[in-house]
Amino acid sequence: MKKVTIKDVASVAGVSYTTVSRALSGSGDIGEETRKRIVQIAREMGYSPNTVARSLVARETKTIGLVVNNISSPYTSEVALYIEEQAWVHGYSLILCNSCGNVEKEQTAFELMTGRQVDGIIIHPADEETYHRILPYTKNTPTVFLNEDMGDLPASYVTIDNYKGTWMGTEYLHSLGHREIVYFGRRWGKRTRTQRAQGYSDACESYGLTPRFIDYPHAVTTSHQAYQLARELFAGGDRFTAVFANTDVMALSVLQAADAFGVRIPEDVSLLGFDNIVFSALPKINLTTIEQPKQAIAAAAVTMLLGRIKLPKTEHRSRVLVPSLVIRDSCRRIDPPREEHAV
Amino acid sequence: MKKVTIKDVASVAGVSYTTVSRALSGSGDIGEETRKRIVQIAREMGYSPNTVARSLVARETKTIGLVVNNISSPYTSEVALYIEEQAWVHGYSLILCNSCGNVEKEQTAFELMTGRQVDGIIIHPADEETYHRILPYTKNTPTVFLNEDMGDLPASYVTIDNYKGTWMGTEYLHSLGHREIVYFGRRWGKRTRTQRAQGYSDACESYGLTPRFIDYPHAVTTSHQAYQLARELFAGGDRFTAVFANTDVMALSVLQAADAFGVRIPEDVSLLGFDNIVFSALPKINLTTIEQPKQAIAAAAVTMLLGRIKLPKTEHRSRVLVPSLVIRDSCRRIDPPREEHAV
DNA sequence: CTGAAAGCGCTAACAC
DNA sequence: GTGTTAGCGCTTTCAG
Question: Where is A185: in which H helix or E strand?
Fold first, then answer.
């Protein structure tokens, strides 16, 4: 089954293959008569253009790379869906790669993708180190970072205001009368994580509360590991009236552990998540959470990347979208123990 | 920022660019001395091979296309993760495309992907019509169908025994004493769907039960639409003691609707799902379901595709994996109304 | 309006 | 061992 090329069409049509190229790419100077005839013949012969060859001369592949930690994470897969849709609309295809939270694999992914001449890359970085690791590749390939505030680094990114998100969440819990809130699943290594922890921490301070953290040692959230950690939380015997989870997936694990320990949510302890994945809206889950505007994030990332592909020289830009509080049923009002009345 | 090519390296090294090619691709005849020197120079110059050019001559891209209905579906994204991992292990990259359950878009995706010279394609078809629509492309590009029994059609596929799955589920419900089981979310257009419905239907018949179907008119499952349908189910006032949902996502919607109507699961009605997505294991969800071995499916699909890429002439093959029952808490034993005792 | 020729970056015969 | 040459499929000057 040999594939039919432009030359095959040319010889059948009895013209030079240049003419065929022109007829097919619709570029300018060609007789309407011959054009139609060639297009017709090409169709009959089942011709389909070889994009690889075309890319080689055009020096663009109309392909963008997407590297994420884990495509099966609900948050990520939802964003990936929107990114693919946006890319598609603009005539771009997606090459997907899971880094598994591994910086080495991120680097390999960049090597592979730049080798494949992708026009640009969107990366949800695994770690703080990521930036430096992939820096050499970003010199030649426009890159936008997803969900990560790159601060002063020369990098384009779109993210949300994580600091504000956790502040907002803490504020909400405080307004419900909670004074003993533990932050579950703090991690290190990325600004996003630090900022989330910081927003909570600063809010606590401003309300005169003592921040308390449960740190999560692993790079990628797995339900199982988060569940183990949540068990320790409840087994620890510490006092707290609310837990603010670093992500919805973690919150779900807390929910599960609470269930195992006979702790009722929200009667015994309130639970607040972050991300607003679809399953958080489920009945009996009904997780109150901080929403990330996923569709807007995806659209902004694609738009930004396409902009940089067109004008690579432009200064780096950033878009910081705002999260919002989605109130469902996992947090309840309680009577604050001492200082003051609930608002 | 011009990219450095093999020629640049050659001129710096003072050799012909063929030599550089040989040095870099490590193929055979070249002096160990010069090889090392060239590799060194290439590294210093930041050379990175242009895979596009290489693909053009090699006539392979080491890329496989993956087209799915919706990457954000939990089942799909999990399978996609495993597929990407498997592909990666074998040195292949993934081009991802969402068909959104749309046959037109599937066709466009095939056109695009074959144009990009992918070495093969894995497709989770949207519809029965899919096969015929993409047939012309499969002539030149090895294709394996995912999650769809292609029957006698000349096509390679890996799927599970859906018929057995629903039979097994129905049998289980029957064994718990259920005699009025409704099948929620039957759809048309794919064998998979028909087979699921049929397994249930035949099992009912063999147990002397009357099959009852709630049909789902849409192509892609959205929680919202499934929820609406589930509401109608409970609003209808029909009698039933168990519902067997076509997918876990649908089961979750049933759960939600039940909640809204004050119907308790499993006290008032038992609920059985299909797929075993991660969230079904959640506390308070704890959905009993038919498990699809996702990792095995992914591995089989990649293996099969790679096999066909290597030997395209081979006869079409199929792998039909077996589903299994995962018992959790959403189905309970009841006293059968009349005929006989529960086992 | 159409054809000839060059070349995108790389590999693979085939010489030397 | 290394260089020369051709060519993968296509687009794009540049002539005519």
Answer: strand A181-186
Higher pLDDT, B33 or A283: B33
- B338 pLDDT more than 60: no
State which H helix or E strand residue A245 sits in.
Answer: strand A242-245
> What is the DSSP code string of B121-162?
EEE--SSTTHHHHHHHHHTTS-EEEES---TTSS-EEEEE-H
Contacts of A57 (CB under 8 A, 6+ apart): none
CATH topology of domain B60-160+294-320: Rossmann fold (3.40.50)
Strand (E) positions, B18-116? 63-68, 93-98
In this structure, how many other beta carbons lie within 10 angstroms of the beta carbon of residue B54?
A: 17
For residue B173, the one-letter residue type is L
Amino acid B263: pLDDT: 95
Q: Note which residues in 176-215 of chain A have CB less than 8 A from chain B.
A: none
* Concatenated DSSP letters of A51-106: HHHHHHHHT--SEEEEEES-TTSHHHHHHHHHHHHHHHHTT-EEEEEE-TT-HHHH
Q: Which of helix, strand or coil describes residue B37?
A: helix
HSE-CB of A169 using CA atoms within 13 angstroms: 41
Q: Using CA atoms, how far apart are residues B239 and B98, in angstroms rounded to an integer? A: 39
Per-residue pLDDT of B74-112, as tens digits, reads: 999 999 999 999 999 999 999 999 999 999 999 999 999
Given A53, A73, A88, which is nearest B56 (Cβ)?
A53
Is the per-residue pLDDT at A342 higher than 50?
no
Distance CA B101, CA B105 (A): 8
pLDDT digits (tens, 9 = 90+) for A272-330: 999 999 989 887 789 999 999 999 999 999 999 999 999 999 999 999 999 999 999 99
Mark yes or no for CB contact B96/A96 under 8 Å.
Answer: yes
Alpha helical stretches, state H, chain A: 6-13, 17-25, 32-45, 51-58, 74-89, 103-115, 130-138, 162-175, 191-206, 223-235, 248-260, 294-310
CB within 8 Å of chain A, chain B residues 119-138: 136
> Domain map of chain A by residue range?
6-49, 60-160+294-320, 162-292
CATH topology identical between A6-49 and A60-160+294-320: no
Give the Cβ contact number of residue B290 at 10 Å: 28
Q: Contact, A58 vs A275, CB < 8 A?
A: no
Greater confidence (B314 vs A1) lies with B314
Cβ of A235 near strand D (under 7 Å)? The reply is no
Give the dihedral of Cα atoms A163, A167, A168, A169; nearest 10 deg: 110
- Asked if strand C contacts A29 at the CB level, meaning under 7 A, the answer is yes
Three-state DSSP at B275 gives strand
DSSP letter assigned to residue B180:
-
Write down the residue that tokens 């190229």 correspond to: A21
Q: In chain D, which nucleotides are within 7 Å of a protein Cβ?
A: 1-5, 7-13
Q: Decide if domain A6-49 falls under CATH 1.10.260.40.
A: yes
**Cβ separation of B115 and A1 shorter than 8 Å?**
no
d(C-alpha B254, C-alpha B88), whole Å: 38
Residue whose entry in the numeric block shows the structure tokens 């090329």: A5
* Closest alpha carbon within chain B to A70: B81
Residue A60 and residue A327: Cα distance in Å, rounded? 46
Q: What is the CATH number of domain A162-292?
A: 3.40.50.2300
Structure confidence by residue, pLDDT tens digits, B157-171: 999 999 999 999 999
Is this prediction's pTM over 0.85?
yes
Pairwise CA distance, residues B330 & A190, whole Å: 40
Q: pLDDT tens-digit profile of A241-257?
A: 999 999 999 999 999 89
User: For chain A, what's the residue count?
Assistant: 343
